[in-house]
Amino acid sequence: MKMDYLYDGSFDGLLTSIYYSYYEQKAHGIYPEASYQFNMFTPSTVIQSDPVLAARVYDAIDRKISVYSLMQIYYVYLSNNPAKENLILKYLQLGFQLGPKIDSIHSHPEVLPIRQTAKKVSFEAERFLGLLRFTDTGSYLYAVLEPDHNILILLADHFADRLAGERFIIHDKKRNLAIICNKKEWYLSDSSEEAAIPDSETEQFYQELWAKYFTRISIENRKNKKLQSHFVPQRYRHNLVEFRKSELL
User: Fold this and answer.
1) Per-residue H/E/C for the chain
2) 212-226, pLDDT tens digit by residue?
3) Spatial contact of 121 and 79, defined as CB atoms under 8 Å apart
4) What does the alpha-carbon distance between residue 214 and residue 228 come to, in Å, rounded to a whole number?
5) Burial (CB count within 10 angstroms: exposed 0-12, middle 13-18, buried 19+), residue 54
6) Residue 15 contacts residue 57 (beta carbons within 8 Å)
7) What whole-number distance in Å separates Cα of residue 142 and Cα of residue 214?
8) What is the rounded distance in angstroms from the CA atom of residue 235 to the CA atom of residue 67?
9) What is the rounded average pLDDT for all residues in the chain?
10) Distance between CA atoms of 88 and 147, rounded to whole angstroms?
């Protein structure tokens, strides 16, 4: 009988579950333990994340399928798609059969959802590279975001390079995660709490100046709210200073 594997939500835990599906008992499905709905007709077991077993699956995907497929499944893992674990499972089952050829069958029913979901994650990460706004607290730079997908880790290297030599925090308020950089290196923290962070006087001045500029350049008879919403969706705007302090929100 096939088994439902329950994991801890980590990428290592997901890959460990895939290992057990191949070398122990075939998976009926893979689900986060925290949100699993028990089914009396399907046995289930909790899988402990094992970095060694996860690394074996990681390397097997790289060698037997492709590094591109590895990147695709990681982006899907970061997505908010509620079926992501089983999309990845089915994709890898096909990938281990076909090898690198899977990269060329874009319309296959096990491949297309992976491509589409990974593209959404990639697009949102690229969008936030331009949308993220930092506040100067006086001792470090702080930015807050509430993305649809868990993209925080995809932003870290970019801002560590761009803000080299700066202390900064990028806080995903929706997931209570944060990238914390101490000038030289960054790490991911799962215990960030957003405080009422006071703006330095200089930062406050530039926020107000930016908001005034943003308002003035938006000529009334040239406003295109549909186009504006395409580039800056409403759900992101409350974290952007130019919308918090302008009439465009």
Assistant:
1) CCEEEEECCCHHHHHHHHHHHHHCCCEEEEEEHHHCCCCCCCCEEECCCCHHHHHHHHHHHHHHCCHHHHHHHHHHHCCCCCCHHHHHHHHHHHHHHHHHHHHHCCCCCCCHHHHHHHHHHHHHHHHHHHHCCCEECCCCEEEEECCCCCCHHHHHHHHHHHCCCCEEEEEECCCCEEEEEECCCEEEECCCCCCCCCCCHHHHHHHHHHHHHHHHHCCHHHCCHHHHHHHCCHHHHCCCHHHHCCCCC
2) 545 555 555 555 555
3) yes
4) 13
5) buried
6) yes
7) 21
8) 33
9) 85
10) 22
Q: What is the dihedral of CA 40, 45, 46, 47, to 10 degrees?
A: -150
Strand pairing category for 3-7 and 44-46 = parallel
Give the residue carrying structure tokens 């925090």. 169
Overall average pLDDT of the 184-199 stretch: 67
